[in-house]
Amino acid sequence: MKILLSITLIVLAMNVSAQEVNKKIHDQVHNKDILINACTREGITTFPEFKEMYNPLYAAYVPDAATMIELKTLVKNEKIKIVLGTWCGDSKANVPNFFKILDALHFKGKNVEIIAVDGNKKAENGILDGLEILRVPTFIVYDKKGKELGRIIEGPKTSLEGDLLSIYKKKS
Which residues form the signal peptide (predicted)? Predict the structure, then answer.
């Protein structure tokens, strides 16, 4: 009986914590369909409204070579959380360029978490709890132990790669 109860509790816990990836909802704030919660890169890059800007911007972006050389020496096993809105112009403009930088750095995809928010900059199931997201996109860099090293909010101060380099330099 104890084993059956344990298995039941495990299954219930898995169902509660599991959430639909690349979930589409209708956002009341913007009166359009959007993605919400955990997303994959493929999910956001194939979402029609996001894709129309993603592909040309990704192809056209050329990160600063000198900054990238310096960044490559600093990038290890950090994790990055990208909080974006598929409805948001700044997200549509900056996320493709950020992925171009990550690809050039050979940043591991498993170390990137993508969370899409609604027009109120909220997601479901508490996945943004404690992050204080006020604007999107927000790119948060964590060390391998999960400590936040820094973030780029909405748009870069210098360039995405320049701001990322500043975050990494603070770490070392």
Answer: 1-18
Burial of 75 (0-12, 13-18, 19+ CB in 10 A): middle
Which is it for strands 112-116 and 138-142: parallel, antiparallel or unpaired?
unpaired
Global pTM value: 0.88
Q: Which two tokens stand for residue 93?
A: 């403009």
Tens digits of residue pLDDT in 82-113: 999 999 999 999 999 999 999 999 998 899 99
Spatial separation of the C-alpha atoms in residues 78 and 148, rounded to whole Å: 10
Cis ω for the linkage preceding 63 (within 30 of 0): no
**Sign, Cα dihedral of 134, 121, 113, 145:** positive
The domains located in the chain, with CATH, are 20-171 (3.40.30.10)
